[in-house]
Structures are given as C-alpha cells and as structure tokens.
Amino acid sequence: MKPGDIIGHEPMGIVEEVGPDVDQSKVKVGDRVIVPFTIGCGNCFFCRRQLWSCCDNTNPKAYLGEKMFGYTTSGLFGYSHLTGGYAGAQAQFLRVPLADVNCQVMPGDLHDHQIVFLSDIFPTGYMAAKQCDIQPDDTVAVWGCGPVGQFTIRSAFLLGANKVVAIDDNSTVPERLQMARDAGAITIDMSSESVYERLLDITAGIGPDVCIDAVGMEAHGSNMVEHIYDKVKTNLFLESERPAAVRQTIECCRKGGTVSIPGVYGGMSDKIPMGALMNKGLTIKTGQTHVHRFVPELLEFIRQGRIDPSFVVTHRIPLTDAVHGYEIFRGKTDGCIKVVLDPAA
User: What is the C-alpha to C-alpha distance for residues 320 and 323, in angstroms, rounded to an integer?
Assistant: First the structure.
C-alpha cells in the first residue's frame, strides 16, 4: 500500500455513467449494482472456467504477482499494488473496468444490507465451505468469528453440515461467539479452553471433517509463546504473517479431512506443520474468492429467505466517520463486528 491509496473492496452503488464500449443490455445508468472485489475480464482461460480471481488480464502490475507468487492474480479493488493498485470502494465514486462483466445488477426490492455483502464476504464464506464438499454427517470447525467467519458458519449449515463449531476469543469480542451461537453453532472460547481437546470431545475423538481458517495472516497465537514467536519474526521481517490459525486447523483436522483457507495470506509463513498435513492425508482448498460464480446462487438464497445477510451489520456510519469505524473495529469496542460505510449519509 502507498499513501493516498483508496481502500475498500465491498462496492455497492448506483451506476452514474458508462463508457462507450459497455454493453448497455447488461448494465446501464441508474442500475443498482454490487461489484465483486475480484476483477474479471470474462474471456481468459480462467474466467471461462469460473476461476475469476485468477483472471489473467485485469492486473496491470502482473509482474509483481509473478515475482511474488509465480503467476499473477486478478486485479482486486482496494487491495495492494501487488493486485493492481485499483482504487477501492470507500469513496463517493468508483471506476469499474469492464463494467458489463463486473457490475452485477441487483433487484430494487431488497435492502442494502441484504445484498452489499454479495461483493465479497458472503461469497467468500460460501466458497470456503462449498469447496470442502460438505456431507450431511460432517462436523465443520471454523476458526475466526469475524464477518467472513460468520458467513462461513451459515454457509456450512446451508450446505447441510451436521455440526458447525465456531472458535474465537470470547475475552475480546464476546458478541462474535454469541452471533455464532445464534446461527446454531457450537462455540469454543480459545481464551479459556483447549481447542484441540474440545474438538476431540465434540467429534468422539476423531476430529472435525472440515477445518476452515477464516482468520488469515494476522492471527494471535494459540498460546503466548506462539504469539511472541510470530510477533518477533514479523517485526524482524523474517516472516510476513502470523499463521497460528492455519497451523491449528492442520493439527486439529481429522485424518483424510479437508482444510479450507479463506483467510488472506500474502507472503511467507513459518513453522507450518507439513508433516501433519502430508501424513494425515489432508486436502487443502484455498484462494481469493471467485465472486462472480456465486452471486446468482446466493442472491436466490436471499430471495428464498434461507439467509438474511443483514444479520452481520452492527454499525452503519457516514463515510466521513470512517476513522471512527476503523477505531472501534480494531479496538474491539462497542460490540463492533461489521461496519457499513455510507458515502451518501
């Protein structure tokens, strides 16, 4: 990131203007749209296979991705220059390239809070669960009960999981675990319970069939030693992230199970238990979200009343108060779980 970059990757708004090459049978001035944070071209090898976040043509700084990852990612709104440096959605206006591919026209009879998260966190949570091929007798464990974790929990139930276990630190934002319980999840407070022992208890000693890391690169360790180790290494630039959650998912997953990683990682991680991963025969599923693929299906779930995504909103504030929103989210105060920023307020 650079000073002056505009962040935000959950865009929703009204189309004010379209370019001359936009197919106006697909999107036109006045349409209410959400915009997937992953930018697709619609025509490359990957987009044609519904692997939208792997698009070959939308990252103008592909050389950075190639250097870091071996291949480029798609462009992403409001992320870093590694993913194109596109200006994000926390602004009064947003320029959307290839608008007739990326603007998803929404119905007018649904509330903002019901559809805005189709741009990112609802498809992200859904893909995290969907790619695990959840079976009716499966136990799914989800690390992290932030917004992505909350949608992962509900998506696992939508896909027919028998049990869903939500794991978070009740000493910081107790409202997160309560929200998970409201969805029907069994909860584990990692600040006062052994996650590994509780999961064995819940699964009769077998372990969860599916373990999902909805935390990502800024996890706090499962114990103080682990937390300090990762903190020191990242401060010394010997490691670029704190992968405590992904370590624990690998250790806790049953033999032959699946580990899914919607939590974002961007560089190099240390002390990943590769021995457990290989010898237990685990399957790893991960990736930035192929948002376009899931929007029609999830919109239908909303219309059918199977889920109301507005459950996750705890604060709606004007864009001019964004700093306050960031402060209460980072500080874990005022029961903050999800903030919606309104440029028009």
Answer: 8
- The whole-number pLDDT of residue 217 equals 79
The β-bridge relationship of strands 283-286 and 258-261 is parallel
Domains of the chain, residue spans: 12-120+290-313, 121-286
User: Residue 52: what pLDDT?
Assistant: 98
How far is residue 239's CA from residue 220's CA, in Å, rounded to a whole number?
14
Round to whole Å and give the CA distance between 57 and 90.
24
- The string of DSSP codes covering 146-159 is SHHHHHHHHHHHHT
**One-letter amino acid of 329:** F
Specify the pTM: 0.94
Domain range 12-120+290-313, its CATH number among 3.40.50.970, 3.90.180.10, 2.60.120.10, 3.40.190.80? 3.90.180.10
Using the 8-state DSSP alphabet, how is residue 219 labeled? P
| Bridge partners for 318 per DSSP | 342
Distance between CA atoms of residues 173 and 336, nearest Å: 8
Q: C-alpha distances in angstroms, 168 versus 176, 188, 206? A: 8, 7, 21
Closest among 102, 150, 146 to 126, alpha carbons compared:
150
Residue 71 CB coordination number (10 Å): 10
Residue 312 near residue 319 (C-beta atoms within 8 A)? no
Classify 295 in phi/psi space as left (phi over 0), alpha (psi -120 to 50) or beta. Answer: alpha
Q: How far apart are CA 82 and CA 344, in angstroms?
A: 30
pLDDT digits (tens, 9 = 90+) for 42-80: 999 999 999 999 999 999 999 999 998 999 999 999 988
